[in-house]
Amino acid sequence: MNRRHLLSALGAAGLGAGLIGRARAQHEMHDMPGMSMPPAATPEPSPAPALGGARYRPVHTPNGWTLPFRINDGVKEFHLVAEEIEHEFAPGCVARCWGYNGGTPGPTIEAVEGDRVRIYVTNHLPEATSVHWHGILLPSGMDGVSGLNQPGIAPGETYVYEFTLRQHGTQLYHPHADEMTQMALGMMGLFVIHPRDGEAVPVDRDYAILLHNWALHPGTSRPDPSIMSDFDLWTFNSKVYPATAPLLARSGERVRIRLGNLSMWNHPIHLHGHRFLVTGSDGGRWPHALWRPEVTEIVGVGQTRDIEFVAAAGDWAFHCHMSHHTMNAMGHGIANPLGVDTRGVADDVRQLLPGYMAMGGNGMSEHSAHLAMGMMAGPGNTLPMMTGQGPHGAIEMGGMFTVLKVRDELPGDGRDPGWYRPPGRELARRVSNDPGFGTPLRRPKA
Ligand SMILES: [Cu+2]
């Protein structure tokens, strides 16, 4: 039996193996005060500005930004640059990606129904690109499908797109030239169009999150465009938890979260503690009669969905409900170690593989415990399968996960308010450590 077979027979050092984060980096992460908190907090929403006569509440793109524009003769002018960038998914994992204007996702483009927009696109990539304005009603020649609607924008060239916005809603933009590669490397962005006449039910906070997946194999630094389904990283605005910024709100505020999906999977996005309304999509804000209450909404590939809710005090998980999408890199094709006592063979394996740890026999939770203790090593430039520390211990999440933090009052400067303190006895608590506690009923044996 060769080493490879032996490993796979043993469950390959637990499901996290081969992808176990760099122990030292993780160790430091856990040791640094505040590192379990995402670095980028959410600033206060600024008052609705007057632009071209129309007033709107600006969208906030967590971990991202909004592209500034200038007004030239009544036309809003934007400039996108397609280019290679260095992108950090979370501390300890950096990749050479492709994006726009220095980042992935590209900056959010924001405008108002009725605006005439002119968008310059400069190509700094090594191959031709184009931009498709996904969901936007426009003349065919502006639709951005290279070969069909226009020639590809060659490296070094700048093209200009110009059209009038005839709708509102949460739209997207992405290349339509070597689309598989360029999107796999991170080229995509949100395009939010506000209604011209404002909204009958205005929101106090407006967040925008783009969902994506990445095949960044452990130990490598370039996303692999050939992968169809077995991705390593699942992201909110190109970040994985714990680097995903928390979403902040005050109790009682009306919050909208716009979700766009340009990944290769559908994502059932779930919010704890609230019943939200699905109120819109690429088709704009729906008529009131179509709003429907949900706690989980599937955002299909190429779709957008807007959800709205009245914020209730607490720390509330907000995540994709595909449980592998709230994990980071892991091996998927290995033997199942669950229930297997591997203690006896771990010493033998260590002679072949120094540092080997038998894991997963009692579940995967010990993965995060070992990480916290700095006991695990693995390939460089990857992240632990599950991570994150909360006020009560390991959160054991990654990928498409963040925390909605609702407080009666928030720090004025947009700082993270820290962890929620439940009032009185509103906290689950231990009442016994006797395994024989109580008289639970069990389903009768047949
Ligand atoms: Cu998902």
TrEMBL record:
It comes from Solimonas terrae. Pfam families: Cu-oxidase_2, Cu-oxidase_3. It comes from the Bacteria. The keyword DNA-binding does not apply. Residues 30-53, 412-446 are annotated as: Disordered. Keywords: Copper, Metal-binding, Oxidoreductase. Signal peptide: none annotated. Residues 412-432 have a biased composition (Basic and acidic residues). PROSITE patterns: MULTICOPPER_OXIDASE2. This is Copper oxidase. GO terms for molecular function: copper ion binding; oxidoreductase activity. Residues 91-197, 232-333 form the Plastocyanin-like domain.
